[in-house]
From TrEMBL, chains A, C:
The lineage of its organism: Bacteria, Pseudomonadati, Pseudomonadota, Betaproteobacteria, Burkholderiales. This is Acryloyl-CoA reductase (NADH). Its cofactor is FAD. Residues 6-118 form the Acyl-CoA dehydrogenase/oxidase N-terminal domain. It comes from Hydrogenophaga pseudoflava (Pseudomonas carboxydoflava). The gene is acrC3. Keywords: FAD, Flavoprotein, Oxidoreductase.
Automatic annotation (TrEMBL), chains B, D:
It comes from the Bacteria. This is Acyl-CoA dehydrogenase. Pfam families: Acyl-CoA_dh_1, Acyl-CoA_dh_M, Acyl-CoA_dh_N. One of its GO terms (cellular component) is plasma membrane. It is an enzyme of class 1 (oxidoreductase). SUPFAM superfamilies: Acyl-CoA dehydrogenase C-terminal domain-like, Acyl-CoA dehydrogenase NM domain-like. GO terms for molecular function: flavin adenine dinucleotide binding; oxidoreductase activity, acting on the CH-CH group of donors. The lineage of its organism: Bacteria, Pseudomonadati, Pseudomonadota, Betaproteobacteria, Burkholderiales. InterPro entries: Acyl-CoA_Oxase/DH_mid-dom, Acyl-CoA_Oxase/DH_mid-dom_sf, AcylCo_DH-like_C, AcylCo_DH/oxidase_C, AcylCoA_DH/ox_N, AcylCoA_DH/ox_N_sf, AcylCoA_DH/oxidase_NM_dom_sf, Mycobact_Acyl-CoA_DH. Its EC number is 1.3.99.-. It comes from Hydrogenophaga pseudoflava. PANTHER family: ACYL-COA DEHYDROGENASE, ACYL-COA DEHYDROGENASE FADE29. Belongs to the acyl-CoA dehydrogenase family.
Length: 380, 393, 380, 393
């Protein structure tokens, strides 16, 4: 057992924090989020130069050969800085899909560009009637003339308006809720028949709904083995959850620090409100929530590549369930202790609040993961 | 002791139900169900419609246009109004200033303001909080210095809801800085078009413009705009806090909100099956419903006490604490049920995320409920004081 | 709508409180609970004289013609005084069974004696594998020679060692979980084949397990219609829950008052601990819990005779679910705020704590009733 | 960063597991599983058995008989011990006094007491709290007045666990009443058979006799029984609070407890089906398990910090708060799963309610966990002080 970061991991974390504090302050971030594209390609490429985008990709593919422990160092720093760019969407979900299942052609097409920040690749898996049931896939892919034809609808695709391509989850066989018969496809964003209805999200990022109408794809679009995509999809989402939890940890830590500072300076009844015991204990409850979150992120990361998928998923669900409740609590109490100013768009507190609120239901609510955790008990 | 409505009350219920069914505009209904912010015109038109029916100022005495209902009738009215997805839609003038003027206003003030409030000719905003005076409201610093027949005001008010729509503001000002700080506060009426008033918008975390900061620089206000005596402002504010106890709990709207949540959970799917059948979601909805039942019956008990003439007490703090907790829980559930349907910033309503388009802003704004009007922490301080003085029922 | 008690109801409540305060103080109560029988027959008969035991029985049967609203006035007072005698077991469950289903002979045998305090009648319905599923009945009654033969086991029979008789729930037909086929029988405690394994309960009362081995009963032992006992049983348990909730309310109110007094006098750090804001707010949370409990008891009582059984049961379950959580909270916090002395057998605080702890799981936990509430939504 | 044990650690684990399997007495196992109170003889015999194996004083340095394990080995040992349903069974002497004497004792004190603690020849109790000094421990009033080579003690200690079994008591006494109240406190060792000591039992709400009040009237104690310097008592007590951080969270025993709960929920029936299949019960057990996981990994992190030599800090307060919450939740679940099986007063064990016979007393006594050793409220005060001083990680 060893819980220490390596020297390289520590450097990665410190460098990310330092750069973001200097170059991605709240004002700069708001400008980016309010801009027409809603993200900064320039920043994105710098993230690539720093190695953040390729940190968990093999060296052969232009990456740095790290893994989830490196990923969560970056994710935590990004969450603390309210970064809008699609780290979770592209670097974790999109790139890892190709890194884990791509053939040489697919790898060389996508991975170096994803690592450098030239390309953005989103995962399109959710459907409106599926909610968080990953096996519920209505989008269909039919073999035709050596290639494939895709039709269906996807909702809640993270980073969709920015994406150069999508990893689309579609059914090549089986009934609508079956685990078998699910396949993954690489679909260029400008392929005829692909329509993206993008929107601005409440956390300042962008997402969109995807409409796929008879999208004709070549043979090389299939990612991984036909009909066997479910296991990979589940692993990808588990990785996404770990990264999202680390992002939430960053946001929660920032709120704890900022709230501590605020209550120490804000005066009511002629004293700093930090002198009220109820405020003090609330702050302690927030602190305990952040500490538990840090522990759970660590736990989930250490199990993210566990060979037994049931153990992996059960541990990840435990973390998501518990962190979701704590994220909600910390976000709500940060606003509450800030009072009126915490309710204003002008302050960063509300932005963290919204980011954490969306996190709570991303990839499934706490209740969803509690039930998944309980169901997986039998399997472990 | 019984729970049944009398035949007269049942007849009244039918009448009210039919009226709302026939007269609530579809657009207002949609906004109420989804939680979309109402615009000034929405509210004004709707209030005028209610006033024509004689049902606007239900909390006012009959001589000033109130309908003269029993507490049970007012409860029924509120229930049916909410069940029909009709908005509360009441302005500060109707809820807050009206009762104050009735209790403390001069005959001239009553004659001048009450009819205009009823007809929605004036729009009143409330100037209580200041940048340095939130939970510690009594420490407010906006000064009103007598100068001949006028006061001259200097200071700033904050979190002023709909000040940008307002023609008037009722506010608390400091007319004396000696003695106990509560005793130097007075209640004053101000026309918003007076020189020296500047309204600066504050966008809140739901992305909407409800709130403002109001700057007052050498604003001249006639002394006849004083309500009550000089130094009586704090008592008037406290009177208001405990006066309007039927509505503070928000039971009727919570019931309508909960019904919408059950509908939404029945419509939304999880793995193709209705979300309402999900084990954890069922328990969560059940918990929320039961908390609402506890709120409803606590509200009944307070109403019954009021009806038997017991003096208003700290029950309003209890009802506010319980009521805001339920409201916040329901808004939280909106977001959870919606999941990714709640993501799009509501300007992007054209995407057709319909029912869920305003789940996020409604939830965000619901967090203010435990901050304004005396934060949850302040309410508990009030209750603790009562309990330790031996005043628990 | 009318939420006021009648003058008679108010008198009943005040008289009960007054008598118990004077004659059933904590020391007197402990003597009774520690005595060999564990209850005071003398007090029980006085309760009868005061009309508490017949308050909800018809006048024709020696009662006072009241109902559940009168019952909860008494129950709250008894809870506040930690009374050990079997009000819930006999006056609510036992007597109401006969009052609602008894034929003239059964009524005259039992009701006047129950009202006066001469007799005690317990309901024996729980079985060890049933938990709170009222339809799960393995105890069998077989028709034989115009009478019946009963065999089976019952657990958790309230007041069992004191009972002169039992209302035994047995199956006369149907499968083990079927709603139809359940019948109720009046069984004298000294009938051959009846064995009571009594024990002292953690709240100071007594209960027991029942062993029924080929118990031969006459024709007149059947209470109500054969095979149709389930509806009555459900109503009885609903009434029992309302009374138990009122008892809990009494105990919670007492804890709130006593804790308020304690924190006002107990000094630490040179000041009464009531001057700490965290203690103050805790007290407020306890107060809010007690107030909500009072509201919910009222709500449940007002629906206890609702003609639609589903509405009745759903409302009662709502109350039990919510009051259970609050009882646990108030009990735990009363001990916590009393600190060390709250942990001692010498003080009454711990006795209220144990009474409320048992209440939480009596007739089903909060979770059980939450699920029943949710399931009954469809039916209402 | 990795979670796997080294091959050496795995071999150690196998060795410990096999030993506990072979040597834990069935009667002790039964008591551990059901939560029945251990008697003095249970503990003494078990400790002697562990000591023979060299596994009793695992927290002591090697020179005083400790096994010289790494933190990981100590963690594994604790895990296997609990999983085998073997009791912690450690006396105050082993857990508390031993480390104090090692750090602060004179060579004579070490030689005199440490071997006797290991061999269970002395039984030590802890005299900290007083009737007027609970959360405010520093206000303790028991005086030790120097008189020649002796101190003369007067006062009273309360909540003294197993004082009625004890041959000795280590306690905090006041040797000075001037200056800061913490600075007048000293750490003193007392033989319980000295004249003027009276032990009065206190029965707790689990119906058992764990606790006592100890009255000290003109008790003569030699000055050589002082540990550390006069006035150093408060620092010694604080040292102890932050020292023994591996065990404060109670992770290993919670894991064993949870496993028992899952077993019980599988055995108990509801409507004839295993209670473990009940939807709400599944969620409740899942929640408890996840909270325990959060505790376990927080404990790991603190251990890792300790291993890298970081100074002990307020983590012990965090671990205590988190740990006691989990322990209390698990005990609550015992009672809920048992339902009516938990009713019988445990003297009535002959009824065969077996596994559930001690659910109620265990739950009742678990409530003390947030009171003694610094109440939950005091722990939060400590943490708040650290947070507001900017000491959050």
């Amino acid at each position: 057992m060893n819980f220490d970061l390596s020297e390289e991991q520590t450097m990665l974390r410190d460098a990310a924090q330092k750069f973001l504090r200097a170059e991605y302050g709240f004002d700069a971030r708001n400008k980016i989020a309010a801009s027409e594209p809603g993200m900064s390609r320039e920043h994105w490429r710098r993230f690539g130069e720093f190695g953040w985008l390729g940190v968990a990709l093999p060296e052969a593919d232009g990456g740095f050969g790290g893994g989830i422990v490196e990923t969560i160092q970056v994710a935590e720093a990004l969450g603390a800085a309210l970064v809008a760019e699609p780290y979770l969407a592209s670097t974790v979900l999109g790139a890892q899909a190709v890194a884990r299942a791509g053939n040489p052609a697919q790898r060389s097409t996508w991975l170096p560009g994803l690592a450098s920040g030239e390309l953005i690749l989103s995962l399109a898996h959710t459907e409106v009637d599926a909610r968080h049931d990953l096996a519920h896939v209505q989008t269909r892919a039919t073999a035709k003339g050596g290639g494939w034809v895709l039709s269906g609808r996807k909702s809640g695709v993270l980073g969709a308006p920015w994406a150069d391509g999508f990893v689309v989850v579609a059914r090549t066989s089986g009934a609508v809720n079956e685990r078998r018969g699910i396949s993954l496809f690489l679909v260029g964003a400008r392929t005829p028949g692909v329509q993206v209805a993008g929107y601005k999200v409440y956390d300042g990022s962008r997402a969109g709904d995807l409409r796929l109408d008879d999208v004709v794809l070549g043979e090389g679009a299939l990612l991984g083995t036909e009909g066997e995509g479910q296991a990979l999809l589940e692993h990808l989402i588990d990785l996404g959850i770990v990264a999202a939890c680390a992002d939430a940890l960053g946001a929660m830590g920032a709120l704890l620090r900022k709230t501590g500072e605020y209550v120490s300076t804000r005066k009511q009844f002629d004293v700093p409100i930090a002198s009220f015991q109820v405020i003090q204990h609330r702050l302690v409850d927030m602190f305990a929530a952040v500490e538990a979150t840090r522990s759970l992120v660590l736990m989930a990361a250490l199990h993210a590549e566990h060979l037994d998928a049931a153990v992996r998923s059960r541990t990840v669900s435990a973390a998501k369930a518990a962190i979701g409740e704590r994220a909600r609590f910390v976000a709500q109490q940060a606003v509450q202790l800030h009072g009126g100013v915490g309710m204003t768009e002008e302050l960063d507190i509300g932005h963290y609040f919204r980011r954490l609120t969306l996190f709570c239901n991303l990839f499934g609510s706490s209740d969803h993961h509690l039930q998944r955790f309980a169901a997986l008990r039998a399997a472990t | 002791m019984d729970i049944d409505f009398s035949p007269e009350d049942r007849a009244f219920q039918q009448e009210v139900r039919a009226w709302f069914k026939a007269h609530t505009p579809a657009e207002l209904k949609r906004k109420t169900v989804t939680g979309e912010m109402l615009q000034k015109d929405d509210i004004v038109q709707w209030q005028r419609r209610l006033d024509t029916q004689g049902w606007l100022v239900t909390g006012w005495p009959k001589e000033h246009g109130g309908p003269g209902w029993t507490p049970t009738q007012r409860y029924i009215f509120d229930l049916e109004r909410a069940a029909a997805s009709a908005p509360v839609g009441l302005s500060m003038g109707v809820i807050m200033l009206g009762p104050v003027l009735v209790a403390f206003g001069t005959p001239e003030q009553k004659a001048q303001y009450l009819p205009r409030i009823r007809r929605c000719e004036d729009w009143w905003c409330q100037g209580y909080s200041e940048p340095g005076a939130g939970s510690d409201l009594a420490s407010l610093k906006t000064t009103a210095v007598a100068d001949g027949d006028d006061y001259i005001l200097n200071g700033s008010k904050i979190w002023t809801t709909y000040a940008h729509w307002a023609t008037h503001m009722f506010c608390l000002v400091r007319t004396s800085s000696t003695g106990k700080k509560q005793e130097g506060i007075s209640f004053l009426l101000i026309e918003m078009d007076r020189a020296g008033i500047e309204v600066k918008p504050i966008v809140s975390i739901d992305g909407e413009h409800h709130l403002n900061q109001v700057f007052l620089t050498d604003v001249r206000v006639p002394r006849k705009n004083l309500v009550g005596r000089e130094g009586q402002g704090w008592d008037i504010a406290k009177y208001l806090l405990t006066h309007e106890r039927t509505s503070i709990a928000g039971v009727a709207d919570c019931k309508a909100h909960l019904a919408n949540l059950y509908t939404a959970a029945g419509e939304r799917r999880s793995g193709g099956r209705p979300l309402a059948e999900d084990g954890a979601m069922r328990l969560k909805l059940a918990r929320a419903e039961i908390e609402l039942m506890a709120l409803e019956y606590t509200n009944f008990r307070v109403l019954a006490d009021t009806a038997t003439g017991k003096a208003p007490g700290p029950e309003s703090s209890l009802l506010k604490t319980m009521g805001t907790a339920v409201q916040q829980t329901l808004s939280e559930l909106d977001v959870e049920i919606a999941a990714e349907m709640a993501w799009p910033w509501h300007e992007g309503g054209e995407l057709g995320h319909g029912r869920y388009a305003h789940a996020m802003p409604r939830y965000c704004f619901s967090r203010a409920a435990t901050i304004y009007g005396g934060s949850d922490e302040v309410q508990k301080n009030v209750l603790a004081k009562m309990l330790l003085a031996g005043g628990a029922r």
